[in-house]
Amino acid sequence: QEIIKSEAMLVNPVTEVAKKVQPSVVNITIEVIEYDIFGREGLVPAVGSGVIFSEDGYILTNAHVVEEAEKENIKVTFFNGKTEKAKLVGMEPRADIAVIKVDKKNLKAAEFISVRDIEVGDLAVAIGSPFGFQQTVTSGIVSALGREIPQLIGGEEYKVVVDLIQTDAAINMGNSGGALANIEGKVMGINTLIISPNQMYGLMPTSVGLGFAIPSDIATNIANQIIKYGKSRIPIIGIKMGDSTDPDVPGVFVVQVFEDLPAEKAGIKVGDIITKCNNIVLRTQLDLIAEIVKYNVGDKVELEINRNGKVFTTKVQLVDAPPEYGR
């Protein structure tokens, strides 16, 4: 009886996470233009979630939550039930990140944690507005790290929805843009999508324990770029790449080196295999993209190169992609 009583007195960690994080999670309502079968135009509401990024009104969410919103038709509902109009600051659809802003001060900004401090099996608490049910809390674990969803890449080299956190915490439509927090109440990711068997039949997807979140490292870095420049500045090194086919040397195979860009200046050549970035082991080209997108234009990264069996390192200064690069 004493054992049962002691266990009952233990604090539920999900309860503590919810208390800390809920005040930093908002409901986002937008209005999008849709047409009926007679071609008549009308505004239809849609919902998503967001995470308060700074106390002076910046809110982080998914690009797909707000990209179809009509101007001035974004509304934010806070934990206390109050609603404010918001404006779109900017977005990066390739990373599914957007920033909106409300004219409000002294907000409770979320605390973020790097994905490098997260392990598989850690507690994962999702907070958002599934199907419009605001401030819904679900929990599970971090099921996997470093996930890439092939259909999101679409064969284009610079899609950057990479390095995703996989969780079995229930995530549904409306959770997009909301928080995925750890046991300390720190946001490790921004919930972005689910995979559901319903999608194969053209039905509304619902949670089957396959949810994914954009790591906070990527989300906050892009948000800071948007706030500072009004747009994202995802850096490049200036190569066309593929995956190494050498079973003894996994990594990123350099297919092409673009003229006058950092890779060429650093001495990287076609046929090189990039095996590490800042001591992070690379298995595929998506691993390299996942690392570079965490940095900013002007930063330097150290790459480990395998050239016909000879291994060396070189430093590359990241640059913004020129218009002709095709990003």
From TrEMBL:
InterPro entries: Chloro_Bact_Ser_Proteases (IPR051201), PDZ (IPR001478), PDZ_sf (IPR036034), Peptidase_S1_PA (IPR009003), Peptidase_S1C (IPR001940)
One protein family per Pfam: Trypsin_2
GO BP term (any one): proteolysis
GO MF term set: serine-type endopeptidase activity
Protein name: PDZ domain-containing protein
Limits of the PDZ domain: 226-309
PROSITE patterns: PDZ
Keyword tags: Hydrolase, Protease
